[in-house]
């Protein structure tokens, strides 16, 4: 199993429309739901927002990684969204976020998946990975940004 | 090169834990600092800090939004920060840690540190030798049951203190205590034992069939042995059902709340009523008849048999048969030798085990040692149930020991021709005039059995390897 399995072309958008935290989350959750990886949109959204309350997952550097662990999720995966204009995500550095990784994990996920997710989180800290992602236009662009050293 | 150890941990443990770790590692590399970052995320601890790391480390960074155990960092300066700080400003955390770092000369003296490192090793060893399999499940059940036995037993004992028949007067304080202790706390004892054995095996879905099975064991008179059986059956049944029942993903949510509890409780409940219940009732009847036939045999033989029976299953069918037989000999209010022998035999199991917890401290868990203190009061009050936690935790060593002790007591009581005029009450009946015949010899019988049980249990039991470390 590699990083590719966590992403899917059907769970990606390179043109997020939302201007607020909530509307961006709704767009991403819709993608996830339409791809059949989620049973209950509301329940999962609640889990994600609860996590956001603790402190924003806008980690700065233009990235947000909203995530939730909920029984309505059928398998661990990532939904990717790129916003051209940027969204105020209440990020740590008060800058707008452009890259969104919505991470969804079921209540009982196996460690292989969780390790992969931690690998992605680690990669996002690296500037060159972020730059590649910002200019990504396709599924291939996104996954290759993570695959390269 | 300066060495720092760090731990990162966030509430969900999915993303920030690892980002913080990566940020710290990158910053440290740039600054020329050697760092080891342990991540405590949803997969558990990764890249764990070893004893060797601790030996070399000069400072600690804890970038944690959850509680982490800090004991192992004793003696090292600690920089505490949130996960957020570590992601947005890793370099300043590292500089702070470096500023606080102790120069080599100020590090704790070798011996001191060695002690600590040894402790860590011991703690690890303890972890690996910790309980496994069926024994662990049994101990989980027993540890939840102990407080019920202690609370219920002591309340019953207090009720007796108002007079052994005080509880028979409706609405009295003694009656209330008896109801709380015997009617409720003791009533929950076997269900709790069975429920938590099943819980330990199969998690939450195991609790329902376990507790219901235990309650049925109570009602059917199968006692704590029936309860242990119900607990294991329920736990393994649920674990097996979890494996074999495959549902479409959309319905998986129904498993823990609907499907597993309903099916398993149905099976365990019917199993208890039809498979366990019938033979238990049959055993009780058969043993009662057999005992009636035995009543003309020698006092010594009858004493030994009654003693063995009283201690065998404490509250189960064999014990009940012996006790009922004894009570029937009290008919017409005549003092009875059999009643005396049976009560004495019911007092020695908790007393003998209590004595053993003082004689061989290292062979009992801390929980059991506490239960041992309570068992003294339960024993002198003729509340045989005080021995159940010990017997349930280690049946093959404890049950034979208490059976032998009770047989000795019961046989001696018969030989000494001690008599008893009331069916219950323990030491509280002793001061009542004419309640006990041959009082002194009766006490000697009880003490003898207590000592026999204590020595036998101490000899049979092995030492507990698990000893508290950090003291």
Gist?
Chain A is α/β, with parallel strands linked by helices.
Number of domains of chain A: 1
CATH class annotation of chain A: Alpha Beta
Could you say what the CATH architecture of chain A is?
3-Layer(aba) Sandwich
Terminal Cα separation of chain B, in Å? Answer: 34 Å
Task: Please characterize this protein's 3D structure.
- Chain A has five helices and six strands.
- Chain A has 149 residues and is α/β, with parallel strands linked by helices.
- Chain A has one domain: Mannitol-specific EII, Chain A, CATH 3.40.930.
- In chain A, strands 1, 2, 3, 4, 5 and 6 form a six-stranded mixed sheet that branches.
- The longest helix of chain A is centred in the first third of the chain and has 14 residues.
- The radius of gyration of chain A is 14 Å and the shape is globular.
- In chain B, a hairpin with a 2-residue loop joins strand 2 and strand 3.
- In chain B, helix 8 runs parallel beside helix 10.
- The two termini of chain B are 34 Å apart.
- Chains A and B meet through strand 4 and helix 3 of A and helix 1 and helix 3 of B.
Task: Please name the defining characteristics of this protein.
heterodimer; A: 149 residues; alpha/beta; six-stranded mixed sheet; 6 strands; 40% helix; B: 471 residues; Rossmann fold; 3 domains; five-stranded mixed sheet; two-stranded antiparallel sheet; 7 strands; disordered C terminus
Give the arrangement of secondary structure elements.
The complex is a heterodimer of chains A (149) and B (471).
Chain A: E1 12-13, H1 21-34, H2 41-54, E2 58-60, E3 63-64, E4 67-69, E5 77-87, E6 97-105, H3 111-124, H4 127-134, H5 139-147
Parallel strand pairs in A: 1-5, 3-6, 4-6
Antiparallel strand pairs in A: 2-3, 5-6
Chain B: E1 3-9, H1 16-31, E2 34-41, E3 44-46, H2 51-56, E4 59-64, E5 78-81, H3 83-88, H4 90-100, H5 110-128, H6 133-161, H7 173-202, H8 204-219, H9 223-244, H10 254-294, H11 299-312, H12 317-328, H13 337-359, H14 366-380, H15 388-393, H16 395-415, E6 419-420, E7 436-437, H17 439-460
Parallel strand pairs in B: 1-2, 1-4, 4-5
Antiparallel strand pairs in B: 2-3, 6-7
Helix pairs in contact in B: 1-4, 6-7, 6-14, 7-8, 7-9, 8-9, 8-10, 9-10, 10-12, 11-12, 11-13, 11-16, 12-13, 13-14, 13-16, 13-17, 16-17
